[in-house]
Amino acid sequence: MPNVRVVSxxxxxxxxxxPAAKLDDLYESPWTCQAVVRSLPPLAKQxxxxxxxxxxxxxxxxxxxxxxxxxxxxxRVAIDKLEQLRVLIDASxxxxxxxxxxxxxxxxxxxEVLRTGGGVPREAxxxxxxxxxxxxxxxxxxxxxxxxxxxxxxxxxxxxxGPSTPMNNSLAQTFQRAGLITAPKGKExxxxxxxxxxxxxxxxxxxxxxxxxxxxxxxxxxxxxSADLINFLLELGFLNVGEPYNLNSLSPMQQNVIKELAALGxxxxxxxxxxxxxxxxxxxxxxxASISEGxxxxxxxxxxxxxxxxRVYAYTTSKLQAEILRLFVRLEYQLPNLVVGSLTKESVSTxxxxxxxSDQMITFLTKHAHPHAASKTPVVPETVxxxxxxxxxxxxxxxxxxxxxxKDFPTEETYEAVVNYARxxxxxxxxxPAGQRLIGRAERHEDMRNFIRRQSAPQRR
Amino acid sequence: xxxxxxxxxDISQVVILLDANPYFWGEKSSRGANRAETTSFTFDRFMExxxxxxxxxxxxxxxxxxxxxxxxxxxxxxxxxxQGIEVAANARSARAVKKQSAVxxxxxxxxxxxxxxxxxxxxxxxxxxxxxxxxxSLSMALCYIQKVLRGPPPHPRPRILCxxxxxxxxxxxxxxxxxxxxxxxxxxxxxxxxxxxxTSAFLQQATHITGGIYQKPATPEGLYEYLAMVFATxxxxxxxxxxxxxxxxxxxxxxxCHKKSIDMGFVCSVCLSIFxxxxxxxxxxxxxxxxxKSSAAAQKPKAS
Lengths: 461, 304
Prior knowledge:
Helix content of chain A: 40-55%
Strand content of chain A: 5-15%
Keywords (chain A): DNA damage, DNA repair, Nucleus, Transcription, Transcription regulation
Subcellular location (chain A): Nucleus
Family (chain A): Belongs to the TFB2 family.
Strand order of the largest sheet of chain A: 7-8-10-9
Number of domains of chain B: 2
Mean pLDDT of chain B: 79
Order of helices and strands of chain B: HEHHEEHHHEHEHEHEEEEHE
Largest sheet of chain A: 4 strands, antiparallel
Largest sheet of chain B: 6 strands, mixed
Radius of gyration of chain A: 28 Å
Number of helices of chain A: 21
Structural class of chain A: alpha+beta
Number of strands of chain B: 11
Shape of chain A: globular
Pfam families (chain A): Tfb2 (PF03849), Tfb2_C (PF18307)
Number of strands of chain A: 13
Structural class of chain B: alpha/beta
Helix content of chain B: 25-40%
Strand order of the largest sheet of chain B: 3-2-1-4-5-6
Organism (chain A): Riccia fluitans
Radius of gyration of chain B: 21 Å
Strand content of chain B: 15-25%
Oligomer: heterodimer
C-alpha cells in the first residue's frame, strides 16, 4: 500500500536512482541544486551549509562529532541521504566512508547562489504584457479548476459504469501507469483501483507529485531525457507566480512539457498575435516547495464540519469535494453551497473495501475542517474517530498467516522435540499433542525441515 | 504551547537585529586606519558576511522568512522583510522592486537608514552615541513576532539573532530586561553574536534566559563561518546538534538610580527595584522605607 506521506518524497529517490554521471550533470543547474538541498532532512541541510565553503575532505569522524550522541540515528540518516543523492562524495583514500567532501559541481553552484541571492531562472516578459496577464485570484481559480477537472475524471471512473466524458488520453495513460485505474480490457472501461481511492484522499501536493513522478518515469518511452526533464521541472518551481514567461524561447521538449503541465493547471498558456507565453500558477511553486521533508504547505480553506452525531456538513460548491466525500459519507442532500451527509457503517465499510484506511479518512476530515471546527480540539469529534476505527477493527478480526502443517511423526519423542524447537524459534502457531500435529509459520519452514531431518536421521542409522 | 516547544519542521522566522550604529563602525574603521591595518573588520566586510548568511537561510528552506531590523544610535527601523509587500507608486515600479534581490533591497534601505540617523542626530543634539538602541530593536522584533504568531497558521518558528557591535548601554537596562522576559514568555530564543571588542552582559543574560546561543567570535574576519555553523541552525535541528554551550554568564544587574553595573546593592522590598545606595523612598513605586525604624529591616542588601 503506498504510504500517503512518502509519495512526494519519492521523487527525490527517483533522482537518487539516476546513474552517477547523470546525477552530476543535474548539478550543473543551480535550480536543481537548490531544490535538492531543500528536499533534504533538516540535519542534512545543516551539514551542506557547514561544508559549503570547505574545499578539503572532512573526515566522517569529525562530522559525527557535530551531532549529539543520542541523535546518531538522525546523523546516519542524514549522511546516507546525502550520499544517495551524491551531494556528499566519498573522498577517502584508504577505507571507504572515511572522509567526505561536497560534490564540487553542487558546491560551486550553491556558492554562486549565496553570493547572488538566487533570483529567478529566466527573465519575465517586459511589463507591456502585464496588462494582459490575469490577476492572481483568477489564476488561482484557474489552477484549482483545472486540477479538480483532472481529479473529477478519476472520480468519474469510481461511480459510473464508464467515464461520463471520454478521458484525456495522456492523462488516462498516466493514471494507468501509476496504478490508479485499471488498464482497459477489451471494451470494459477502466475502473478505479484501491490506490486510486487512496490517491483521492491525499493533499494536492502529494497528488501532483505522484502524477509528475509518473510523467518523469515514462520520459524515456517518449524519447525525452529524464535528467533534462527533472531539471526543467525543478526550475519551473522557482519562477514567479503570475508573471508571463516567453514560451517560444523554450526547446521543443520543454514546450511539450509545458503543454502537458497546462492541462494539470500548473501553468496557464496565453497567446498573443506573435508571441505565446506561459504563466506559472500556485501549483507550480509546489514543484519546488512541497518536496521538502515534513513541511506542511498551507492548504486552502477547509469546509467540513462533523457533529458528534456523525452528521457531516461541507460548505462547498466544488463538485470534486462532494465526490470525494461520497467515497465514505452517505450524502443526504445537496444545496447550492452545502453538502450534507452522514457517516454510516455501510458508507464507511464501502470505503474500507476499496482500500481506504480509517487514518486516511480522519486525516482528510481533519485537513479539510471548516475554520470554526479547526479551532476546536479535537477537530473531528472523538466519538466519530473512535467509531471509524472500531468499524475498521471489525473487518480485521480474522488474521491470515501463511503456514505449514507437520504431522505423521514417527515417535512421540520426535514430535515433542519438534514442538519444542518450533516454540523456541517462534514458529509455532498451533499444536495438537493428541493427534501429533503442529502448524508453523511458513517463513521458518526451512529451519523446521532441517530440524526434522536431523531428528529422524539417527533413527535411520 | 506544546507545538511551540517541539517544532516538527525546520521552517524558521529569523529576525536579525543589525547593529548599524554609524559611530561605532566609524570609530572602528578609523582605528583600523590609524594602525595601518589592512585587515580591520569594517562595516562593509561585516555586511558581506551578513548578506551571505541571509541568503544561506533562504537556501535552507523556501518557506524560511527573514526580517532585518537596523539598530542605530538614536533610532531603529525595519530594513528588510522577506514577506513584505512593497508599496510602490505604480505597477511598473512595483515590478522593478519585485525583481530586486534581497541584497539590493537591504543595502538600499541601509543607506537610507544611516542618512536618517545622521539627520536625527543633528536635530537631537548630543545623546550618548556610543550606544546602540538595542532595547528598541528588541521590542520591534518581539512585536513583529507576535504579529506573525497571531496571524493565520502554520506559523514558522521564530527566533531573534542580535549582531551586536557597540557596548552595552546601561541606561537601557530595564527596557532590555523587560524585552528579554517577554521573549522568554513567548518562547522566542534570542541568539547573540558579538562582533565588538567588549563582551555583552545584556546579551549573555538574554541568551541564558531564553535558551539561545551566545558567541563572541575570536576572529571577526571569519564571521560567516560562525553564522553558518552556529546561528543558521534551526530550532528543530538544535535538538540533535552539538552547539557551543553557555560560558560564564555575567549576571550583574544595573542599579535603577545611576544605571551602573553593581555587584551588591539594595532591593526595594515592594517592587524589587535595585539601587546602589540606600534610599528613603523607592523612586520606582514610592514605597516609604519607614525612616524612623531601623532601615535595615526594609532595605536588604542584595548579594550578586
